[in-house]
Amino acid sequence: MGTVLSAANRHESKMVWPLLATTTIRRPKVTARRKQHIAMDKAYDSAAIRGKLRRRGYVVHIPKRGTSPKVNPVQRYPARRWVVERTARWQNLFRRLKIRYEVHSRNYEAFVHLANAIICFRSCRR
Questions:
Q1: Cα separation of 49 and 29, whole Å?
Q2: CB burial string 50-82: b at 16+ within 10 A, e below
Q3: Is 2 helix (H, G, I), strand (E, B) or coil?
Q4: Cα 116 from Cα 3, distance rounded (Å)
Q5: Number of Cβ within a 10 Å radius of residue 122
Q6: Are 60 and 66 in contact (CB under 8 A)?
Q7: How many whole angstroms separate alpha carbon 53 and alpha carbon 55?
Q8: What is the pTM (predicted TM-score) of this model?
C-alpha cells in the first residue's frame, strides 16, 4: 500500500506518478497471458495519463468524464472500485486522520501508516 501526502488544493492527477512509485510489492512480470490492470476514477481521465500507463504495460480502466456508468446485468468481472472507497471510509473512522492535528507532515504520515497497519491487522483477524 502506497501513501503520498500533498496539499489539499493539488489535483489527484498530478499525484499519480509519485503514488505509483511508492508501491512496496513488486509488480508481476507482464506476459501475453497475465496482464496487469489498473482502475482509476474519472479524475485521472486524460490522454497523457492513459498513454503513460499503457506504455508501462497496464490495461487501463478509467471511465470517461461526462458519462454515466454502464449498467450491465451480465457482467463477467464485477467492478472493484468499492475496495478503494471502503478503505478510504475505514481511514476516515480514525479521528486523528479525519481532523489533522499534526503540524508536521511526517507525523501525520506516521499516523496514516499506523491506521493502515491497524486496518490490515483487523482484516487479518477476521
A1: 21
A2: eeebeeeebebebbeeeeeeeeeeeeeeeeeee
A3: coil
A4: 10
A5: 10
A6: no
A7: 5
A8: 0.65
Residue that the C-alpha cell 497497519 belongs to: 117
Q: Write the DSSP assignment of 3-71 as a string of letters.
A: -----TTS-GGGGHHHHHHT--SPPPPP-SSS-EEEE--GGG--HHHHHHHHHTTEEEE-PPTT-PPP-
Q: Which three cell numbers stand for residue 75?
A: 457482467
**Looking at the DSSP assignment, which residues form a beta bridge with residue 59?**
37
Give CA–CA dist 38/126, Å, rounded: 27
Q: What are phi and psi of 60, to 5 degrees?
A: -90, 130
Predicted confidence (pLDDT) per residue in 32-65, tens digit: 777 888 888 888 888 999 999 999 888 888 888 8
81 in Cβ contact with 53 (< 8 Å): no
